[in-house]
Amino acid sequence: MDFSADKTARYCDYKAQDIKRVQVTPEGGGAATCRIRCKDQPGCTHYVWGKWNGGSCWMKRAPFCPGRAFFQNKTAHKEMVCGYMDGEF
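The structure assignment produced for this chain is given below.
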C-alpha cells in the first residue's frame, strides 16, 4: 500500500481493531473529518473512511504497520481512504 505525504492511501482498509465508528458524511468533510475525529479520540492510531451507510469513519487502535493495510477493489470501494496519525509509523 502506498501512503501519500499526508499519511493517507485510497482503496484500502484495515481488518478489525475498531474502537469506534461514527457517521461522517462526504458533505461533512469525509476522510479529512475522519482524521480529525481519530486525532481527538484517545488511543486512535489509524482510521478508515468510506461512503458505507451514508459515510462512516472507523477509528482503530493497534501498533500501526503499513503492511496491515490491504487493497480494496477500486470499483466497489473507490471512496475508501485509510490513514494513520502522526508518530504512529
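Interim note for the steering committee: The longest strand covers residues 18-23. The beta strands are 8-10, 12-14, 18-23, 46-50, 56-60, 69-71, 81-84.
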